[in-house]
Amino acid sequence: MRQHVLVAYDIADDKRLRKVMRICKDYGDRVQYSVFAVQVSDVDLAILKERLLKRIVASEDRVMFVRLGSVAQDGEAPHRVDTIGLPLELSDRKRMLF
Residues 9-17: what's their mean pLDDT? Predict the structure, then answer.
């Protein structure tokens, strides 16, 4: 089952920051400067975490994963995130590109 996850990061080094951003971009949409909304299975999420762990320095950087719930049959986001101003528009990513 696929789920919506917010991935937020605070990376101390600009070079590592760019690498983390590129990895997150493979999985979903940027919704804020250091926040991505992704749709992943449990296996995809484990792979994403492993890829990110190889790029960060654990004593200096932080990556946070916030599970928002299952992806609905129609791919719509659950109504757990409200925005003011621009709406949150998520693409339906059913297949990962590596």
Answer: 96
Nearest to 77 by CA among 24, 39, 41, 40: 39
Q: Across all residues in the chain, what is the average pLDDT?
A: 84
Cα–Cα distance for residue pair 56/46, rounded to 1 Å: 16
Q: pTM of this prediction?
A: 0.79
Radius of gyration (C-alpha) of the chain in whole angstroms: 13
**CATH class assigned to 3-70:** alpha beta
* 55: nearest Cα among 22, 26, 25, 8: 22
Residue extents of the structural domains in the chain:
3-70
Assign 3 to helix, strand or coil: strand
Instruction: Report CA dihedral (32, 17, 62, 83) to the nearest 10 degrees.
Output: 0
Q: pLDDT by residue (tens digit) across 50-77? A: 999 999 999 999 999 988 888 776 555 5
Three-state DSSP state, 19: helix
SS3 category, 54:
helix
